[in-house]
User: What shape does this take?
Amino acid sequence: MSTVRVLTEADLRDAVELGMEELEAIEAVYPLVTAGAGSMPPIMRIDVPENNGEIDIKSAFLPGYSGIAVKVSAGFFDNPARGLPSLGGLMMVFDSETGLPRSALFDNGYLTDLRTALAGAVAARHLARRDSDVVGIVGAGVQARLQLQALTLVREISEARVWARRGDSAMAFADEMSDLVGFGVQATESLPTLVESSDIVVTTTPATEPLLDAAMLHSGLHITAIGSDAEHKRELSADLVMAVDRFVCDSVTQSRRLGELRSALEAGFDESDAVELGAVIAGDAPGRRNDDHVTVCDLTGTGAQDTAIASLAVERAAARGLGTAFETRPM
Assistant: This one.
C-alpha cells in the first residue's frame, strides 16, 4: 500500500512562490546538470501544428532528491484569443527509492512558469552587472510578468520597459506591473530603444525569427533568452550570439538542439565557447569578466528544474497538509 497526494494549482500556489528559498532550490540543480550527476533524458516533444501547439515531456533523476518528477507540459499559443492560458499541463512525482507514485500535481503550468522565472533570476544573479537596475522585457505574457518580478529577488530594479508585438498588450503590462512591482514600467514601440536603455533584457516570446541582433548590443548588457525551446523557435540572431563576450546556457546539448546555439553553430560559432550556467555557479568557468562585457544566457528549461521545484512543492504540501491523499492498494 502507498499514499498518493493529489495537489491542485491552488494547493501548489500555497506551497511554493517566487521566493529566495525557491530560487536557491532551482540554482542548486545547475551544477548537478553540468557535472552529469543523475539522469536527464532528452526532451520529448509532440507537435500539434494545426492548433499552434506542442506537448513536451521532461524529467530528471537527481542524487539526493527523494522524488523524480515527470512533467507533461502543453503549450498552445492561440489560446489567449480563446480566453485560455497558453501553457498548461501536470507533473507526476515518483519515489526515487521505490519508483512508486507519490504525488500528482495538477498545476496548470504554474510550476513551469515559476521555475522558469526563477531560472531567469538565477541567470541574472550570476551574469548581470551588480549595479543593473533597468530591465527590458520582450513580450507581455504570463512569463514576462513573472520574469520581471523574479529579477527583483537578485537586483535592485528601479525601472522597466516592455515591448510586445501588440501595443495594447504592452500598455496593459505596463499598467499592471507598475502597481505590482512598485516602480515605473513603460511600454515602448521600439525594440532597439528598449535594448539600448536596459541593463538586463529578458526575451519571453515564441518567436520563430530573431527579434534581437548584434546591432542592438551595448556595453555591460545582459540578455536572458527563454523563448527558444524547440527547433523552429528563435529570438536571437546568430550574429548577436557570435558578438557577445560570453554565451551561457542551461544545457549545451539542449541549446544546440532547441535553443539559440543552433543557428549560431550553423553560422560558424565555436561550441567550445559556450559555457553552461552550472559551471559558472560552481566557479569552474567565468561568467561576466568585467562590467563592460556583454553576456547572454539561453534557457531552454531542464527536467532537473522540474524535479527540484516539484520536490520542494510536495515536501511543503505534505508538511502543511495540503491536497488530498489517497491510499492505493496493489491488486
